[in-house]
Amino acid sequence: MVDSELTNKMLQGLLLVVSELTKRDVAGFAIGGLSGGEEKTQFWRMVDVSTDHLPREKPRYLMGVGVRVTNI
């Protein structure tokens, strides 16, 4: 299980990054660095936090996730 203090620090850092990135005029956003062995609940929590703070009108791409069967 992931330490809750560390998790909170990670989420705070993520929100800071998302806040800075959304100030840029870009075509869309890629979310990466996940799917590295963390529990699925933690994985989806980070995805939810990321996407909740991204502009809805811009595309999002979740990088490096899935296996061949789920990508077809």
Automatic annotation (TrEMBL):
Q: What is this protein called?
A: tRNA-guanine(15) transglycosylase-like domain-containing protein
Molecular function GO terms recorded: tRNA-guanosine(34) queuine transglycosylase activity
The UniProt entry's GO biological process terms, in alphabetical order, are: tRNA modification
Give the record's GO CC terms. cytosol
Enumerate the Gene3D superfamilies for this protein.
Queuine tRNA-ribosyltransferase-like
Q: Which UniProt keywords apply?
A: Zinc
Residue intervals of the tRNA-guanine(15) transglycosylase-like domain: 18-66
- Report which superkingdom the organism of origin falls in: Eukaryota
- One Pfam family this chain carries? TGT
> Origin organism of this chain?
Dreissena polymorpha
